[in-house]
Amino acid sequence: MKPFKKEDLVRIKDEVSKRKKDWIRVGFSTCGIAAGAQEAFEVLLEEARKHNIDIDIRKTGCAGMCYAEPLVEVCVQGMPKVFYGKVNKDTAVKIIDKHVMGKMLLNDRIYDVKVDG
Questions:
Q1: So where are the chain's domains?
Q2: What is the rounded CA–CA span in Å between residue 87 and residue 71?
Q3: Residue 50: enclosing H or E segment and its boundaries?
Q4: Whole-number pLDDT of residue 5
Q5: 24, 26, 68, 93: which could form a disulfide with 41 (CB 3.0–4.6 Å)?
Q6: d(Cα 24, Cα 44) in Å, to the nearest integer?
Q7: Could you tell me which CATH number the domain at 20-114 has?
């Protein structure tokens, strides 16, 4: 097998990056469910449908920040991955409107930021 050139690897990385889909994960561990994760999840789905946004919204397990439940992790291309905490109905609406559509962070609800390097 012929080894890849650096240019080939850069091209492949760029192609894969372009195919990546934005996503939202809602924490559905016991503490998340008790804190209201189901409502946050339903609001996120409804708002995404209402605005016809192509985003993958899924349930996930524990992220280890029980004190901040319900937790919502958001990954939108061109922005850092963000964990929003204590997400209620109003915050879920803002996540779609401001973060996903407006490409703006909700600074008052950020509990953690992951910057891919």
A1: 20-114
A2: 6
A3: helix 37-50
A4: 81
A5: 26
A6: 9
A7: 3.40.30.10
